[in-house]
Design brief:
Blueprint: E1 12-13, H1 20-28, E2 65-69, E3 75-77, H2 79-83, E4 88-95, E5 107-108, E6 118-127, H3 128-135, E7 143-154, E8 157-166, H4 167-170, E9 176-181, E10 184-185, E11 195-197, E12 210-216, H5 223-226, E13 230-231, E14 240-241, E15 248-251, E16 256-257, E17 264-266, E18 271-278, E19 284-290, E20 298-299, E21 301-302, E22 312-318, E23 324-334, E24 357-363
Parallel strand pairs: 2-12, 17-24
Antiparallel strand pairs: 1-5, 2-3, 4-6, 6-9, 7-8, 7-12, 9-10, 9-11, 13-14, 15-18, 16-17, 18-22, 19-20, 19-23, 21-22, 23-24
Length: about 375
């Protein structure tokens, strides 16, 4: 896969063509069609999907959530017991940390996301911390480890998918144990019967098919924490963990598409461009639109989000000066001052690439 004259690190390819391994992943997982940005809540079947290993078949009658580790009162709860607890329904935008990976060069051989690994659902569940508080978290607790029922081999390690949150993050009131999605039970592919939901963080943190919560007094060093989902420029670096979602704006492509290339075709005259914007580090305060590939920018109208961690709607009235080819772009800036870059920022795993979207458009005569 690597050029023998100019070798790349293992797991990378400079070939723009998709590999067989990536094709296998792409047939198991799917992104959200960008025209679905028109919905404030993504229809369940359109929400992006990433399954690391296999979808486990779970019998809800025998399933239990085990809470243990450094707690004074370990617990084992049924799904009915969880559902009987105080519950909330909250719209939250989830995005995969690898969104944009396939646009990098060289790119990691992994799920080949372009821009579509995102979606917003109305999630129903119960807050996490009251359960842990009832279990009596030890004073020396450092991490809370969440383990799912999905099993596989990654990095040469046989494992169940598991991730950890620092205790301080686990205390956040918006962190939920979720059993519902868009008014129905979680579908099997989205984590039935229970998943974690960590608003503001990339989707890998929201462990699906949750079965065990364990409080740890030392930092968790499992594969998904210590090796995967870290910013690195070379394989021998320890790197920095990928955590909160960086700002992004996407537009619903206007006009109609050419089947293969997805290039858009528009009649002449005014056109309203619409899209969504989000960030895990604060609300989006500005969206800008460009019709010349990012040379000049104009402000769009941004609407308030429906909830703290849900995406914003935006709109912009564009009137093409005449027939021809245009490159439409959009970029978001959040309340923390973070703004999307116009060029990608490369890293080994292809994580959190949030450079601006470019939509090729032909305005017909």
């Amino acid at each position: 896969m690597a050029d023998p004259i100019s070798p790349l690190p293992a797991g990378l390819t400079g070939d723009p063509g998709i590999t067989r391994e990536e094709l296998q992943l792409a047939t198991r997982n799917h992104g959200m069609p960008l025209e679905a940005l028109r919905w404030p809540v993504t229809p369940t079947g359109m929400h992006y999907l990433l399954i690391h290993y296999d979808v486990p078949m779970v019998d809800p009658a025998t399933w239990r959530l085990e809470i243990g580790g450094a707690v004074r009162r370990p617990r084992s709860l049924t799904l009915d017991e969880l559902r009987a607890r105080p519950s909330v329904t909250r719209p939250v935008t989830l995005e995969c940390a690898g969104n944009g990976r396939a646009r990098l060069s060289p790119r990691a051989v992994s799920q080949p996301w372009l821009l579509e690994a995102v979606g917003t659902s109305a999630w129903t569940g119960t807050p996490l911390w009251p359960l842990l508080d009832e279990a009596g978290v030890s004073d020396g607790a450092v991490d809370v480890v969440f383990t799912g029922l999905d099993e596989g081999v990654e990095g040469g390690v046989e494992q169940r998918y598991a991730r950890a949150l620092p205790v301080g993050e686990a205390r956040r009131g918006e962190v939920l144990l979720v059993w519902g999605m868009n008014g129905a039970d979680l579908p099997p592919q989205h984590g039935f019967p229970l998943r974690l939901l960590v608003p503001g963080w990339y989707g890998m943190t929201s462990v699906k098919w949750l079965s065990v919560i364990s409080v740890a007094t030392t930092p968790y060093r499992g594969y998904q924490q210590a090796r995967a989902y870290r910013w690195r420029s070379s394989p021998d670096e320890d790197g920095e963990p990928v955590t909160r979602i960086v700002p992004r704006s996407l537009m619903a492509p206007p006009g109609i598409p050419e089947f293969l290339s997805r290039r858009r075709f528009l009649p002449p005259g005014p056109c309203e461009l619409r899209g969504r914007a989000w960030s895990g580090t604060g609300p989006v305060v500005r969206v800008e639109v460009s019709a010349d590939g990012g040379r000049t920018w104009s402000d769009a109208e941004v609407e308030p989000a429906a909830a703290e961690f849900a995406w914003h709607s935006w709109r912009y009235r564009w009137e093409p000066p005449g027939p021809g080819d245009y490159t439409l772009c959009c970029r978001a800036t959040d309340a923390a001052g973070r703004r999307q870059p116009t060029e990608p920022r490369w890293n080994l795993g292809g994580y959190a690439d949030n450079d601006v979207q470019r939509v090729e458009v032909t305005v017909t005569a």
